[in-house]
Amino acid sequence: MAKTLSSMLPLGTKAPDFSLIDVVSGKNINLNDGHEYLATLIMFICNHCPYVKHINNGLAKLSNDYKAKNIRVIAINSNNIESHPDDSPDNMKITAKSEGYQFPYLFDETQEVAKAYHAACTPDFFIFDKYNTLKYRGQFDDSRPGNGIEVTGNSIRTALDCLITGKSIPEIQKPSIGCNIKWK
Length: 184
Fold this sequence. Notes:
Glutaredoxin, about 25% helix, three-stranded antiparallel sheet, about 180 residues
């Protein structure tokens, strides 16, 4: 496992559109389809990464907590499944069900979406407002495997709460850290 920091895409960047299949429902998910959300949280995650496994319960809880607040959560796995078969769509479906994901878990087979977002690691987080403008990128919280800090999702929750209440999101945003995306 190579510790990798997120690339910290510049704030104000417009969200690149995508259309990917949700491995659980089989539905095609397009960033710009459907309901107008107050914000969209896009998470690059995978099944095997210990950093993702460490926060899995927090991801599910956060999604459930913000669903009624008009926040959309989308997870994307962009890993090469030839070198990392644990991250295959079939295994993604198993993980989504066992972890209680209530959000779409999309497979980026070509890795084009990860490249468009400059995603570098799992987990890597991006929050876009209702105009698809990047307002936050970085870590879930300060917890890491083995550091003894409780998983709260505090960094993401603070950013989402600011968007909900119309306050400014703190400009100091810490990069996420995790396993590098497994490129082809």
